[in-house]
Design brief:
The protein has about 375 residues and is of the alpha+beta class. The chain has a domain of about 200 residues: Ribosomal Protein S5, domain 2 (2-Layer Sandwich). It contains eleven helices and 13 strands. It has a six-stranded mixed β-sheet with strand order 5-4-6-3-1-13, sandwiched between helices. Strands 10-11-9-12 form a four-stranded antiparallel β-sheet. A three-stranded antiparallel β-sheet has the order 2-7-8, sandwiched between helices. It is globular, with a radius of gyration of 21 Å. The two termini are about 15 Å apart. The structure holds alpha-D-galactopyranose (GLA). The site of alpha-D-galactopyranose (GLA) has 12 residues, from helix 5.
Length: about 375
């Protein structure tokens, strides 16, 4: 993955630090990280790589490759205000992270950077968390201030809140930072405790990117959070973790239809994560699949964060069938577009991929981008001099 060639051609010297950050898919536990629920993501084999070396004058020169970018963006050491111009908004993830370290008293040196990525943006695969984490890692290496994975993730989350305007939970930054090859991260967002659950042999993850670009900064994500806060205040309760489905049902009239459905998603999804974790331990593939399917239905009908393309991909995977090797399928990530995730037997993954590609093209007249991945290790940085 590390080449250094473009960096040398562009800047006439070698990079001194390289950070590599994976994307993530969430297997289950959707839209509950910000409610203190537990979630089960995996880091995937699609990465963002950033190669850097410090500048002498403290300024920054950033060259993102691909997507039509060809010339470095240059800015001075203190020019860290969030960008509002559409063409420069991608830079906010980097600026936000640098600003957070500076605010914490870290002397962040200026740097030149080349960014490569095979992780699509806007596909619900946490390209933004991968970018933030990679920047955080290079800053820590250049400044000589290593942090632990949790405090780094929290810093990146703050950068996303303040610079990208997305009031995200902590799942993505921790999945990207703490993923482990061959394992699902079981992350309890109430206290940020984590454990790693082995993925049964013979299963892989198939990601299907619908191509519908999701943008969580456009307000719907925030509205879901506000709905959930309204539920808690109407019920006089301080956490969804202490709510049961019975209580939510008892207060149906008080909540009204929309808030009732939001609350039902939250409490049932929390229960599904527990069932999924138990089924994973027992390698009970039928229950894994049932939990994923029920999660998708709840996100579609109660939380209303799916879209026709995602619903179609999940239904198509179901049509492909469990007898042919599907374990389960659901939308993954924030929703409103983005990707689905399917757990599938290794030997059936290629067939499921072709099935989804053909079916999607027939139905929507455009391509779905599918890839097969296993769970990989989280982000790392190395000194290359
Ligand atoms: C986005 C957010 C996460 C999480 C998911 C939904 O990916 O960044 O914090 O809330 O949506 O589960």
């Amino acid at each position: 993955m590390f080449e250094g060639r473009v960096y040398r051609e562009q800047f006439g010297s070698a990079p001194s630090v390289v950070a590599v950050s994976p994307g993530r898919v969430n297997l289950i536990g959707e839209h509950i990280d910000y409610l203190g629920g537990a979630v089960m993501p995996v880091a995937i084999d699609r990465h963002l790589t950033i190669e850097v070396a410090a500048t002498e004058d403290g300024g920054f020169e950033i060259l993102p490759l691909g997507a039509g970018f060809g010339t470095p963006v240059r800015f001075g050491r203190d020019d860290l205000a969030p960008r509002t111009d559409r063409s420069e908004k991608w830079l906010n993830y980097l600026l936000g992270v640098i600003a957070q370290y500076r605010a914490g008293g870290v002397e962040v040196p200026g740097f030149r950077a080349v960014i490569h990525s095979d992780l699509p943006a806007g596909a619900g695969l946490s390209a933004s968390a991968a970018f933030e984490t990679a920047v955080a890692l290079v800053v820590e290496q250049l400044a000589g201030v290593p942090r632990d994975v949790v405090s780094r993730a929290l810093l990146c989350q703050r950068a996303e809140h303040e610079y990208a305007g997305v009031p995200c939970g902590i799942m993505d930054q921790l999945a990207v930072g703490a993923g482990k090859a061959g394992h699902v991260l079981h992350l309890d967002c109430r206290d940020l405790s984590m454990c790693q659950c082995p993925i049964p042999d013979g299963l892989v993850v198939l990601v299907a990117d619908s191509g519908v670009k999701h943008a969580l900064g456009d307000g719907e994500y925030q509205k879901r959070r506000e709905d959930c806060e309204a539920v808690l205040s109407l019920l006089g309760c301080d956490s969804f973790r202490s709510l049961t489905l019975e209580t939510v049902r008892d207060f149906r009239d008080t909540l009204g239809d929309r808030l009732f459905r939001r609350a039902r998603h939250a409490v049932t999804e929390m229960a599904r994560v527990e069932r999924f974790a138990g089924a994973l331990e027992k390698e009970d593939l039928v229950r894994l699949g049932e939990a994923m399917q029920a999660s998708h239905e709840s996100l579609r009908d109660d939380y209303e964060v799916s879209c026709p393309e995602l619903d179609h991909l999940v239904a198509a995977a179901e049509r492909f069938g469990r007898e042919r090797g599907l374990v389960g399928s659901r939308m993954t990530g924030g929703g409103f577009g983005g990707s689905t995730v399917s757990l599938v037997r290794t030997e059936a993954a290629g067939d499921l991929k072709s099935f989804l590609e053909e079916d999607y093209a027939r139905r929507f007249g455009r391509e779905v981008h599918c890839f097969i991945t296993s769970a990989v290790d989280g982000a790392t940085a190395i000194a290359v001099e």
